[in-house]
Queue: 2 jobs
Job 1
Amino acid sequence: MSVAFPAGAWALLGLAAVLAIHLLRRRPRRETIATLFLVEAATLSSPGGRRIERVRHSVSLWLQLAAAALLAWLVMGPRVLRDETVQRVAIVLDGTASMGAFRTQAEAALARRVARWQSRAARTEWLLWESGLRRPPLYAGGDAAALLAAVSREWDPRWPAHDLLPALEQARESVGAHGLVLLVTDHAPAVPLGVDRLAVGTPFDNVGFAGARVDSDGQWKALVRNHGRGPASRTWSTLDGGRTVPGGTMTLAPGEVRALSGPLPAGELTLALEGDAFALDDRLPMVAPRPKTLRVQVGDEAGRLPFVARFLSSLEAVSRDEPPDLAIVTAPAGVRPQTPCPAIVLRTDAPGTRLLPAAAGGAHALAEDLDWSGLLVRESPAVAPVAADEVAVWAGARPLIFVSATPRGPQLFADFPLAGSSAERLPAFPLLLHRFVESVRAGVVGREQRNVDTGAELAVALRGDTPAVVEAEGRSTQPALLRAPLSPGVFHVREGSEERVLGAARFADASEADFAGASSLDEDSQGDGRVAARNRRDHPLLPWATLLAGVLIALDWALLARGGAR
Amino acid sequence: MSFGAPEWLVLGPFLLFAAWRFRSLGLWALLRMACLLLLLAALAEPTLRRGGRGLDVWLLVDRSASARDLVAPRRAEVEALLERSRGGGDALHVVDFAEEAALRDESRGFTPRGTETRLGSAIRFALGRMPPGRPARVLLLTDGFSTEPLHGLPETLRAQGIAVDLRRVTHDRTRDYRVESLGLPARALAGEPFVIEAVVAGAPDGDVPVTVFREDQPAGRGVAHVVNGRATVRFTDALGSGGAFRYSVQLGAPDDPVKGNDREEAWIEIGGGPRALLVTSHRGHPLEAALAAQGFAVDAVTEPGRLTVGRLTGARLLVIDDVPAHVLPADFLAAVDGYVRFQGGGFLMTGGRQSFGSGGYFGSPVDSVLPVSMELKQEHRKLAVAMAIVLDRSGSMAVGVGGGATKMDLANAGAARSMELLGENDGIAVFAVDSEAHRVVPLASLGRERDEVADLIRRIQSAGGGIFVYTGLAAAWKEIQKAPYGQRHIILFADAADAEEPGEYQRLLEEVTAAGATVSVIGLGSPTDSDAAFLRDVAARGKGRVFFSVDAATLPALFAQETVSVARSAFVDETTGTRTGAGWLELAGRTLQFPAAVDGYNLGYLRPEATAALVTTDEYAAPLVAFWHRGAGRAAAVAFPLAGEDSESVRAWPAYGDFTQTLGRWLAGADVPAGIGLRTRREGAHLVADLMFDASWEERFAARPPAIALFEGASGEARELTWERIEPGRYRARAPLRPGAWYRGAVRVGEQVLPFGPVGSPATAEWAMDARRLREVEALMAATGGEERSDLASIWTAPRPNPTSADARPFVLLLALALFLVEALRVRMGLAPLRSHATVEPEPALAPAPAPIVETPAVRADDERRRRRYGAAKRS
């Protein structure tokens, strides 16, 4: 129950007024009578004496107190929840990694808030989101206990920094204009109007790994940063094949970044720092990166071109094995050759004499930021265009370089005679071919080794006959979208019995590891009773209580009239 | 007063019966009867109605570009129907709105300017004019596609008890062609050809004329042959100079019912080496050669009116040399602050009679960027000024501009600002002009009566009609013509689309200028408005300046600029000695032999955090060369002319080249180190920025992660975006783009800045027809208790919102409690009850004889017993 007019509580002073009235000595009432026979009795009473006397218990006193209390309660406007009232509350849990350090506090604060908000409507529909919107709602329903259980069970705050706004907008849209939106976080980000913040962070010092790389010569280099405001010492070690090798102790000044380095043994290596309150950046796994091997088939005529030989030598991890992943072929003017796989199609026919108009780059990813102003091409017959061709470079209205989709993969056409053009000397042309080759390599099914960030999406080409699984820390998951594990460690992506990726997931988001900006905040913009007022109605006993007050008053007067109020 | 549960009143007769039947209760006593009647009233749930019996309906008529043609045929019918069906006490108020809102009665037929649907602003405009307590509903006659969010409105409307109803008009989409996409490379090099590709979609199949525009100038024409609902047209272009350029394609299909989706635009950035943008009034400026020798591609602009914000893109250094503020496009001027503070650009203003305060830069958007301030100080004023301000108070000035203010309010604020900037010996006269000139403030020296004068100015209200320009100017000239002041100046403020009565203005202005007085014009509107040419001519003939602004909020700043230009003795045209300060060594490796004297300079004051490298030796010790860091960028002021008039001795200065090159190098800042790149692109209605970096940057980012800021338009506030780590060596940030807006931004990497933009959003807000906006209007309707109305007359009988009546129960009950307590006190004190006239007291059996008044205590049982014994004894 609540009250509509809390200020009506002042009416309780009526109780004090009743008591004060009864503290006054009762004064006789003046009466005019027609005879003197009562004079004797009248003389028994004295008009003098004290004006204040002890409060004497009497029926009248209790009736008056009861009536005053009842009237005060009525003045306050008692209200009860409407049976049909429903409020919709969307809670957005900050899923960024820094929240992991405040999980306990956040759950406790959220439980208190849920209890408070639950009392504002007969039924509350809860909707629980994790920021980042990478997962469907963690909970949707009317059970507060189940909601809190879902928070404990489902909330996984290990994601790198991301924008909270989309989740808040989604939440706002889900609950409508009357709904409540709460963001549970560890700092005080700017939020849209109508979103309350429940921040549970407190600043603390943290030291952790802030990045690493493995050079082509097999040397690793790792960065350790002291995010705190005071100097900090940490011991570090390496874990190599289950063996822990002490690395040493280092003392870092506030904000200092220290580099560690060493040779990478075959396989994998994990660096470990002495633990602190934020554990995600205390382990740093690494593997030697190895791209997928691309099997390239070079046509006879293309193989004789010096440009093709130079281009092939600039590619990393290629082989001439069969079956090919990419073909480099030549074709006569105006012909679309059949190739067994994605292909680069060049032309070696003789050029005409007249120069085509200046080449111009189109809005195509392969041609982006490449300078085509030096590409001089002579007139020659062109391949008949197809609607699905994506043109990267034009000469007037004539496509010069375009990508054509075929059932066996994309074909990149350099639809002009190389001889007599400036393409070989122009940096943009091999760069464009490189981009195309890498896009083909990305689609090749093979094994590779990668160092990635925790939680990163993994673009892995799969055969698709069996579901891919991610194995990490002895556990295997079969996600709809392949991602690196959210905790640092070595992982494998397997498709059936074949390994597709040997990876090392490492946490390297320096912005999440810095807790200097953590803060606490407890906002409740609807705490002024507006929601309660909307969801409540008059107490059903209100009219009966009013009647009762009238009856009590009348009873008091009746007793007084009969002189039996004692 | 009304009752929510009147059935309880049926207890009234029972109460009266009880009072009659049980007289010993004393219910006929006034206090007791009143107390019980109040309780009875409380049972019946009394409510107090506020605001009278009638209902106000505020009809908001959408006159935006997308709804104008749809609404026009229905408007008169809707208004007539509402007028016919309203009852006694009801009232209909009509508000026309687009980007602005105007009450039909106040604006006298003025059509609000603009194309967008600012629905939220229009509702707030109506709310601001509703009488408090009066029951009201808002009826929207619109297509429902607001171009601004309606955040906060539901709460505001509910708090005021206003319901929003909707009468929707819908678009016919047959024969609608649209630009589905406009493809353009994000970047190209100067001179490099690039392809512009537009995809046109729609039905039926046929030919659709297409025009491509570069910065709103036609750059090519073609025809899209629509087959199976689609067609692609391509154009090729190449640009010779750096910067960002806006391309747009426009379809020309006749009878297209939805014109708004016939246009799409995109930006391309033309790159090259380091570029310096030199905006100057002097052709062949010596700075050009000096900066070119230093490796800058110098982009010299001598027609400042054609500058666009995009010209700042890729420029490492902006120099404004002896060009008055009013000839620079307002957008460009407003963009300079963000260019310096966020995008890390360098900004140099050099002296001359058209620079700094004399050039009207006081209070302009670049004022805060400069290391010198240009305020008026009493001792540096020119001869006393007599200034007459002619204010347009026509109907268009009643239009709301948000925040409850009208254009008139902002114009008044501008005039008051001018008054504040004038000195005690200056005089001001103010005229409010419609079809007559009303003298609001007669010409008088300001002295100590500023507050009174300001109060008079701020109380000017719009009165309808258009401004009679000649009448206003003639009255102003008459007022200051014979005034004993050294300078006489008239500021004419007028609506650029509603300035009437040129009269014999040419002759009048000849007379004015012949007498040494000047006339400047501040036009509210754009330079392309219907009367803009006339206003430009007034300023030209009046030998003054002309400003146009579509944003009324800028009026106070424009009045301030103009006043300072007139009243301040900013340019000292005497040969003045110089003194070298130590500051030069902060930006140069070695000292410089500065000229011993300059031929003239702009008087300014060094800002607290700025450094002066050279100051004058006169009594002002004014900074001649000053510089400072401003946000991520750097700014400098050279107060003396580097070219043209008053620059002879400086141009003969042997170290001229060394000085300008050193300053230019410092302002341009350091090159961004290799190994990092920023790519921005638009994905639907989102901006996507990718920051790619090699391993050499890991350590720097470990110590200080990169930061990205985005700001809307020329002068929008910067907002920080969040980077997501996509993979080692790659961050990504995303931000939603508001339709019709354009954005700039910057990525800060250590001490360096990677600027980007402008980036445009996919469509004009007005024609985006975002379904979310429609849902928002529907949600607003639902949240406030409104409904979609097909039967318009029913609005007059719609339920009154609750807040128009207040629950009276607490007050009634409180009164009952008070009466009850008073009655208890009365009984306790033994006072006689108050009787109502209806009370019938039993007459005493005998006529009352003078008898002693005795006080008897209340009847007690032992007294009764004693009385009985006494009676028995007497009888015996």
Job 2
Amino acid sequence: MRSIWRTLDRRGLADIGLTCVAVFFIGLSYGAIAVASGFPLWVPAALSVLVLAGASEFLFVGIVAAGGSPIAAALAGLLVNSRHLPYGLALPPGVTGRRWGRLLGTHVMNDESVVFALAQPDPGRKRAAYWACGLGVLACWPGGAVACWPGGAVLGGLIGSAVHDTNAFGLDAMFPAVILALIVKDLRDARTMRAALAGAAIALAATPFLPAGLPVLLALAAVLLLVRAPATKASTGSDEEPAGARVRTAP
Amino acid sequence: MKDSALVVAGMATLAAGTYAFRQSGQLLRARITFPPRAAKLLEAAAVILLAALVATTALTEGHGFSGFARPAGVLVAGVLAWRKAPFLVVVLAAAAVTALLRLLGVS
């Protein structure tokens, strides 16, 4: 843990801290909305700890509250969370920890911890940022979700309407802004920018027609714009190894 | 709450399935030897996914348009980020612009 403080500078930690504060307040609204929709507090509380992926939890609670089947709600949530598979594939090995630590490291994988990790230049800082953000979100998301309860009696009157209407504070714009701020660096490369715009266009075009979660997966097709054709042996003299993958045989 | 048992089953499914997604990407990564260029491509793929996530969360709500206030806030944040403004400024500007527009009656 101490190595996180030493590896990340104060600026990096402040950025992660700010993000976690935003996560706390969105968590607060999540808990309040779930309770207002008729769920006992233990439902959003348990979901917030065991799933730790806000968009899918909002969706699950929303579908069940509207009368939908909980299994259908779970499947819809899983579709939304399917993007965690490419996240796990893209993270350099070791970031999520080794052996037993990896059990927790895997759990705290989400949009925020992944984007903070990818934005760091070297493996040590990637790990530090990943864990700082991951643990911060683990504290703040469920923390916010349950905080509406003790707050409910005392602050309920004060924060009640504010909590239901976090949109009035522009909180919903913060989440895309956080991600955008962290990927801008990579978007300065023209080819990456083109691929990102193509992917965004694909996702936006697909959104009216496909269930939540699928459009952003479809956007991955744009990665084809980044694959360079291997040089032919006739045009270059060098014997370049093709950018393919070799499957490691199981031990 | 109607039919608690089914809700608990749904919650457990969502939790277990999400953990499985988080785990399986890493297992795949460990199984295959990726040369450095392919590894860079994987990171770029994640950036593309995240860019698509920015676009859809900024511009859409469910299957429809999210209204103008939110994308306007995110756009301002993007411009500030491009101009290398500090993270704090970028994120707070997004919230402030969106909140201000909503105060002025923009949805």
